[in-house]
Amino acid sequence: MQTPPSRAPNADQIDLRQVFGTLRRYAPWLLLTPALAAGGAYLLSRQQPPVYEASASVIAVDNDAQNSLINNTLVTAPPLPQGAVEQVMHSRSVLNSVVGRLQKTDLDPALVRGIARDLTNELADNSFTRFKVRARLDPQQRGVYELRARAETPQAAQGLAQAGVEALITWDNNRAKQGVIRSRQSLQEQLTDLTARVAAVSPSSLERQSLVAARGQVLQNLSQMAVLETAASGTLVLVAEPVAPRSPVSPRPLRNAALAGLLALFLSAAGALLSDSLRRRVNGPEDLLPLGLPLLGQLPLLRRKNMGQGFVSASHSGPLYESVGFLRINVQSLLQEGRHRRLVVSSAYPGEGKSSVTAALAESLGASGLRVLVIDADLRRPTQLKVWSPERLATHPLPGTDPSLPPATTVSDMFLRPEAAHVTRVSPHVDLLPAGTPARGGLPGILNQAAFRSHLDRWAQGYDYVLIDTPPMLSLPDTLAVAPSTDGVLLVVEGAKTRLADVERTMENARVANVRVLGIVLNKLARVGSAYYSYGYGSEQAGSSPSPNLRATRT
After folding, report:
1. Is-contact 103 115, C-beta < 8 A?
2. Number of Cβ within a 10 Å radius of residue 506
3. Residue 493 pairs with which residues in a beta bridge?
4. Which one of 13, 162, 217, 346 is at 20 to 30 Å from 550 when CA atoms are compared?
């Protein structure tokens, strides 16, 4: 009987083979979705209006001079704290100054009104895109401020940056003059008061002389304040004037398309893996334990390069030969009593390899000296003749037929003319009854009629085993119609692809139809470490020839 697998995969480990297999199954969508997203992003970007960006730079300097005379006649503002320039550029007074300067330029008035409207809305929303400030400062808050301005045309971007940097420097200079202006205003009030007091006293009094002397000192101080106000300066100095940009900063169709494509690829891949993880698949024998059915065989995944001479030739050696040998022994042990043993081979969905398994089992039974009849009952997608690929279609009559009649060599013909039934010899001890030309419906209900069951009893005469390749059980009801006339169903399950829920649904359909499921064959199992999921002893040591891919048919 079968031996347990050499190693069960750890549920906590990520099976990269399964991950790549999932991505390969979803490959068309994983390629189409990013392509559509990239194309859509490119077209949308091309339809957006261009945005240009111009920049100007100012430097924050320390105005302390080494000359005492200069220091006595120079008023400077204190250094600006971190983030102050950005806040100033987003203040109402500076933005109003910017708009006023733009209105004096030769830019399109409609464009200026649009910029003014955007600046007002940004101020209300506290979200700014027209002006951006980038600072590169040292711990003493000395360094460079880069002011970037965005507009709809190169000239507008240049004009907006120029207006912005001028408004910023003007604000900084006014900041330096605030103290001097307040002092001048205070001295002006003193001068007014002294002048009034001088006029009110007697010209010959000592008080008048004192008031005149005080007024003279205030006048001297006022003249000094005028000089200081004129020389007052801020800490910001223009170092780079804005220039009109040549190309827009947005939109960038190629960049947007690439980002959209990458994002769509990531999201679609994540969605595919998430969807696949929510649909539990049969990855190994341990996943089938809750079903309570015997595992009759585990067949390896074969590579295409080993399929050069056909599937049947590939089953004569290597891991497939050993695995099919154990499958044959298990089937013989399960059906050891009686003659003319009839077995249906099916699957849940197309593509799981049921036709290949049927051919491999028939070849193994025939090689052991048993006479085998293979019936291709998949009338809509027949593949048995393609799997065997006989060199010549040599036919001979079945027992109880008239050899003198024109031979009926397909299931459909033999159903209409059972007395002329002929089979095709595809291998020593193995005969094939092909389905014939694929038809969407074949003969209506041919497998559901009682006559087919009686013909099956006649065709089985002279054979030890009859293997019937039927359509997938979740696609068509033909298997449930044929199986009651046999010993049961051999269910083929593709490893790492077939969902466990689909296997359970297939078994439930068989139970409702009173069809016996004899066991399960795990097909197309890839390597785990250095071993195959197969029965053959010595396969790890042999480890030389890579296994062929059991994908000769897609039925």
Report:
1. no
2. 23
3. 522
4. 13
Cα separation values, 80 from 77, 86, 161, 331, Å? 8, 11, 21, 89
Cα gap 157→149, rounded to integer Å: 6
What is the pLDDT at residue 50? Answer: 93
- State whether residue 427 is helix, strand or coil: strand
Structure confidence at residue 456 (pLDDT): 86
Q: Where are the beta strands (DSSP E) in 330-443?
A: 341-347, 372-376, 395-397, 422-427, 430-433
Which phi and psi (to 5°) does residue 375 adopt? -115, 120
Write phi, then psi, for 83 (nearest 5 degrees).
85, -5
Three-class SS of residue 414?
helix
Contacts with 385 (C-beta within 8 Å, 6 or more apart), sequence order: 376, 424, 432, 434
Q: Pick the range with the lowest mean pLDDT from 73-82, 388-397, 474-483.
A: 73-82
Residue with tokens 């600072």: 135
**530 contacts: CB under 8 Å, gap ≥ 6:** 540, 543
β-strands 143-151, 131-137: how paired? antiparallel
What is the enclosing helix (H) or strand (E) of 172? helix 154-200
The pairing of strands 430-433 and 143-151 is unpaired
> In 3-state terms, what secondary structure has residue 497?
coil
CA 522 to chain centre: 30
B/e letters for 52-73, b = 16+ CB within 10 Å, e = fewer, are bbbbbbbebbebeeeeeeeeee
SS3 (DSSP) at 517: strand
DSSP state of 308: T
Our CA dihedral for 300, 306, 310, 315, rounded to 10 degrees, sits at: -40
Locate 472 and state its tokens: 């997938």
Tell me the CA distances in angstroms from 270 to 27, 275, 359, 499, one per residue in order: 13, 8, 39, 19
491's enclosing H/E stretch is strand 489-494
Average pLDDT in the 285-297 region? 91
Give the sign of the dihedral formed by CA 207, CA 208, CA 213, CA 217: positive
For the beta carbon of residue 10, count every other beta carbon within 10 angstroms.
8
The torsion angles phi and psi of 126, rounded to 5 degrees, stand at 55, 35
CA dist 245 and 153 (Å) reads: 9
Q: Which residues, listed in sequence order, are joined to residue 76 by a DSSP beta bridge? A: 233
3-state class (DSSP) for residue 473: coil
pTM: 0.56
Average pLDDT, the chain: 83
Q: Does the pLDDT of residue 3 top 90, yes or no? A: no
Give yes or no for a contact between 161 and 149, defined as CB atoms under 8 angstroms apart: yes
Please report the pLDDT score of residue 188 as a whole number: 85
* DSSP 8-class letter at 447: G
Lowest mean pLDDT among 337-341, 410-414, 479-483: 337-341
List all residues 6 or more positions away from 369 whose beta carbon is below 8 Å from its beta carbon. 429
**Which ranges of 26-146 would DSSP assign to H, the alpha helix?**
27-47, 68-73, 84-89, 92-103, 109-125
- Distances in Å between the Cα of 397 and the Cα atoms of 202, 252, 367, 401, 404 are 155, 75, 22, 6, 10
Tokens at 224, concatenated: 């000094």
Phi, psi at residue 492, to the nearest 5°? -95, 130
